[in-house]
């Protein structure tokens, strides 16, 4: 990943250039444009997609008008406390406060100024959140989110140059970014000057070497994020002397349908489902969270588990486009009895029956099992049952460039680069250094909140 000296004169210089057209880059572009700057977004793919399009598109926010309308009491402080609890105090409290305060107003801005039709999810809650605060668009899909953001940018007249991979940054001796080199699919290259640069090209999940270095436990796991996220922001930052933090932090997921390769919402677990291994036995406290569950599933025979739930839970899960696709693909198996469930999943019937009887007893007693899962208030699983064969996967990385209040990238000595900003997966997130620190929604939280902050600051 190269850094070159600034060239003497650029034929074209754009006041704000954004690298990457996912949620972070498009929010940054919209904010910079609104603040009066001319903006150009550079995207390596033919169409903006990124990991944003692969996500469920759910953005956590506290104190929003959608929550108030639904009678949900919440605050940025309560949200910040949940983030700190999940990551056991590792994230920077200042950054946590900044993004939890900024994300609610950012969603209301996207709704009011750009017509994105958010609503709050009220029928299930992800582990670790003390209030219902996940906001999504009507289809509850990330593709819808990135498409609506791209349309908003196009409507605003923002230029998005696709098939334009940024390969090199040009830096002056004082660390000011003067310009960059971009490569087109036919191999031709262009130089472009910039007044300010926003790095919104996510983390390094698609770069096997970096995954092996920072998250060795998932080096050979399925990567379920966007392959174009090669870690350039971090590599450029390191070459420039930028501070990085929590590079081993990441979001895993313990419930990706296999071999269909479709995300199965964790609502299947939070609403009362369980996971068993190929021996028909439970192996973990699934309620901790889907991120750390990736490694637990991969530790099981063949790296496989079955998520077992029922028709009621399937009704809740069906609001997600991914789940509907999994049903259409035949990945969600159905059974009227436990013996049929064992037969369709090829799990040992006697062991599976014992496992589910034990789960039923724990639920009836509202008890906590030996692994620590508390079944109090969890509705019984009842026929007809559902089962889906799943594996663990790496979704995205959470470590990255350290930024200040204005999303400006910081050097190792604590000073700020004059015109370099980072947002979304390019910046250090709020999950700390471990998979278990990832609170559901931390990914789009920093994409939307820091994206807007970075765009506003870059325009200044
Ligand atoms: C399956 C899945 C489900 C998820 N579900 C959720 C969820 O429900 N809620 C949540 O909060 N988070 C979720 N996440 C995480 C979330 O998707 C990411 O944290 C978020 O999308 C990051 O946004 P971003 O804009 O930083 O990156 P991206 O959306 O990945 O965008 C980065 C863009 O930069 C482009 N790019 C990269 N390098 C270059 C380059 N050199 N030059 C030009 N362009 C470049 C890429 O092509 C890409 O379009 C999920 C992730 C996955 C994989």
Mean pLDDT: 96
Profile the largest sheet: 9 strands, mixed
Query: How big is the Rg?
Result: 22 Å
Mass-distribution shape? elongated
Q: Spans with pLDDT under 50 lasting ≥5 residues?
A: none
In total, the number of strands is: 21
Instruction: Give the bound compounds.
Output: flavin-adenine dinucleotide
Percentage beta strand:
15-25%
The helix tally amounts to: 15
Helix content: 25-40%
Structural class by sheet pairing and helices:
alpha/beta
List keywords for this structure.
460 residues; nine-stranded mixed sheet; alpha/beta; seven-stranded mixed sheet; single chain; binds flavin-adenine dinucleotide; 15 helices
Task: List strands and helices in order, with pairings.
Elements: E1 2-5, E2 13-19, H1 23-34, E3 39-42, H2 50-54, E4 59-60, H3 65-69, H4 76-86, H5 93-114, E5 119-120, E6 134-136, H6 142-156, E7 159-161, E8 165-171, E9 177-183, E10 189-199, H7 208-214, E11 222-223, H8 232-240, E12 244-245, E13 250-257, E14 262-263, H9 267-270, E15 274-276, H10 290-298, E16 304-310, H11 311-317, H12 321-328, E17 333-335, H13 338-345, H14 349-365, E18 385-397, E19 400-401, E20 408-410, E21 416-422, H15 442-459
Helix pairs in contact: 1-6, 1-15, 4-5, 5-15, 13-14
The chain binds flavin-adenine dinucleotide.
